[in-house]
Specification:
The chain contains 11 helices and 10 strands. By secondary structure, it is of the alpha/beta class.
């Protein structure tokens, strides 16, 4: 998927990431998020999806990770010299796996804590709590209650709500469906699609639930062993029989399968060039 540079809010160019100075997690990974679109980043556990998000948001160092080569551009500018808090203030929000809310603060206090991201901006926009409550009415009902007593789904809503307070241009979402019931997953992803459609917020969405991710995404990438092995429009990926087989994760004999084992892999490998 080739895009003009000016069309992309995020460009990741041939990056390599290592942990503990020896373990290679990403191997020449490249992807782009067109402005105003949702891009799904799919793959099995250990493929490098979360590492990719941490590389973008500048959080690798917290886990002894390092961007060894390649470049990451946010709004056309290199992120190499920017601290995570600077990236947040420039319009990049990261909703991490596991929700990570402040459990001992109320819902309202969690949202107030997120307003730090608005400080230091040229126009200094005012925080808009009503926007969050309009997307997540349940948070308004529970705004005086402690976040630690929220259900998993409500905590996920709060995590996304905190990101919205920062009025981001790009949201990185790491496994928003994790641990949620099918009904809650449907609710969360419906709201994700609304935020994108109504506010024009770009999103890079990491998910193991490929079906729900591709239902809201415009395009997607599939990762394996730290590399992109296939990409395309969401419709193309959702309807491709090889991708379906890959996402079932099992071969006919019950063994785990790699994308490279799939029948048409050699033919489809041309997509990567």
């Amino acid at each position: 998927m080739t895009q003009k540079a000016t069309d992309n809010v995020l460009e990741v160019n041939n990056i390599e990431v290592i942990y503990n100075k020896v373990v290679q997690a990403l191997r020449g990974l490249s992807l782009a998020v067109p402005r105003g679109q949702i891009v799904a980043l799919l793959g099995s556990n250990g493929a490098g999806k979360s590492t990719t998000l941490k590389a973008v948001s500048g959080l690798l160092a917290l886990e002894d990770g390092q961007l060894q080569s390649g470049s990451i551009l946010f709004n056309g500018q290199s992120t190499a010299a920017l601290a995570p808090q600077q990236l947040v203030r420039s319009g990049l929000s990261h909703v991490m796996e596991g929700r990570r809310v402040f459990e001992d603060l109320t819902v309202e206090e969690n949202l107030v804590a997120a307003t730090y991201a608005l400080t230091g901006r040229k126009e200094a926009p005012k925080p808009d709590f009503d926007i969050v409550y309009s997307y997540f009415p349940r948070l308004h009902e529970r705004r005086k209650g402690l976040a630690g007593y929220l259900s998993g789904g409500e905590q996920q809503m709060l995590a996304i709500g905190r990101a919205l307070i920062a009025q981001p241009q790009l949201i990185l979402l790491d496994e928003p469906s994790l641990g949620l019931s099918p009904k809650l997953v449907e609710d969360i992803f419906t709201i994700i699609a609304r935020i994108n459609a109504e506010r024009g917020t770009s999103m890079l969405l990491v998910e193991q639930n490929a079906t729900v991710a591709l239902a809201v995404a415009h395009s997607g990438y599939i990762m394996e062993n730290g590399k992109i092995v296939i990409d395309g429009t969401a419709e193309r990926l959702a309807n491709d029989p090889d991708v379906r087989e890959f996402y079932l994760g099992m071969g006919g004999g019950g063994e785990a399968k790699s994308f490279k084992d799939i029948k048409h892999y050699k033919r489809r490998k041309r997509w990567l060039s």
